[in-house]
Amino acid sequence: MIELNYFQQNFELSPTLAANETVNRLRAQGRTIIHMGFGQAPFPIHERLTKGLAEHAGNNKYLPAIGVDELREVIMSYYSDILDVNPETHDVVVAPGSKLILFAAQMAVKGDLLMPVPSWVSYAPQAHMLGTEVIKVPTRLDDDGYHIDPYSLQQAIDNAREQGFNPNKIILNYPNNPTGLTISDPELEAIAEVCVKNDILIISDEIYGLLSYDGIYRSVSEFAPKHTLVTTGLSKHMALGGWRMGLAIVPKAINGLTSLIQSIASETWSCVPSPVQYAVMEAYKRHKDVEQYIQDCCEIYSYLGTYIAEGLRKIGITCALPQGAFYVYPNFAPYREALLRKGVRTSEELVSYLLEAYGLVSLPGTAFGEEPEVLTMRLSCCDCDGTEVLQAYQNGEELNADFVARHAPNIDLGLKAFAACVDAQNVENFGTVISIRTPALVDA
Q1: Does 163 fall in a domain?
Q2: Which of 76, 110, 231, 400 is a good FRET partner for 359, with 20 to 30 A between their CA atoms?
Q3: At 270, phi and psi to the nearest 5?
Q4: Is the separation of the CB atoms in 177 and 41 below 8 Å?
């Protein structure tokens, strides 16, 4: 009998991709669905990149595994204005999406993974695929950000070592998926100090770095340049998720790391598609219209994310105000007793109830490392016609409640669903009365 390798756990489709496939299937059946479960940037691709892709569509040559020199050079130039990096101290590696870079970085460095909770859905499964342990690190969430106490981090390291584990790497992500919160510079410095002291590699997932609502790009690499590998890409701030263009900025101080990642690339993804590599160079040349596009998208995300968070707070649901990316991370603990009367005890049951009762798709806190009884979920603010929204904003329409009602009505429908779910009294505060209670959706 052929036995399957489930990597020490039951392995399933990534929760984010599964949620998106569920939405596509149900909408294809003609069902009304509010999609808050998938973080895909909804905005149109900038015309400089579409033109570049068309111009290079005939390029069918294999390129170097870590990226063509011209692209790596323009990336280095772009990030040298943001980070303290240069060709003498760092290398650039490109890959088909930052997810593969994250996997390659975990593969390249021995030891177990320190993972703050909540964290993005793929960090832990990747570690399990590599046969390594995941050591959870507690966090605290509030309007001031995503907090990792350095003493708690050190304690997690010490406890893991006492149990025979080898915590040698940590993944940090800020602005954070799933919370939409970021880590302040003083806290990044304190985290960096602990990691340098313990000789731990920091894999700094900065995929949302250019979507910080205050316009400040933060990086722990400033405080631990020889211990930090930065990953990022174009899927979020340039709405290029399907193009699969990610990158890493690798410190040369870790001797042999770049060459090892290059070897991994050569035996797995070979190279990023040639037309994509040449087309995306335009994203790194500081064109004023491209930079304005990024700023406009960020301002829209900021308004929509804050709108959702404030709406949830109005009905008594705990939710920190987002600081970046396009997510909010509410906690339904204040309504635990009311939800229990509906048969809801866990975040997974809550997500299932919202889908069954209101056609609302979200992701449970368990997908991000939380314990089942923690009633959290991730919501994205991307369920809209991004072309319409961006055009309206660039044509001078003010970001306000009327803007949401006209151009992103599913956000109001979502808030209406949450209010009804917890039996809040002020349901009428949010747009059109929701009328999509469809128990038939339970088959999803």
Answers
A1: yes
A2: 400
A3: 65, -60
A4: no
Query: 232: which 2 tokens?
Result: 């990022």
Q: How crowded is residue 91: how many other Cβ atoms within 10 Å of its Cβ?
A: 21
Q: Which two tokens stand for residue 7?
A: 């990597």
Whether residues 249 and 296 share a domain: the answer is: no
Distance, CA of 110 to CA of 241 (rounded, Å): 29
Helix (H) / strand (E) element for 91: namely strand 90-95
- Full domain range(s) for residue 350: 15-44+289-443
Residue 10 belongs to a domain:
no
Which pTM value belongs to this model?
A: 0.91
> Does one domain contain both 323 and 270?
no
Rounded Cα distance between 405 and 407, Å, is: 6
Tokens of 52: 């570049």
C-alpha 350/C-alpha 342 separation (Å) is 9
Helix (H) / strand (E) containing 436: none
The CA-atom distances, in angstroms, between 441 and each of 163, 360, 408, 437 are 45, 10, 23, 9
C-alpha dist (Å) from residue 52 to 45, 47, 59, 241: 11, 8, 12, 17
CATH number at residue 411: 3.90.1150.10
pLDDT score of 19: 65
Which range is least confidently modeled, 24-33, 63-72, 339-348, 350-359?
24-33
Q: What is the pLDDT of residue 13?
A: 53
DSSP of 209-268, one letter per residue?
A: GGGBTTS----GGGT-TTTEEEEEESTTTT--GGG--EEEEEETTSTTHHHHHHHHHHTT
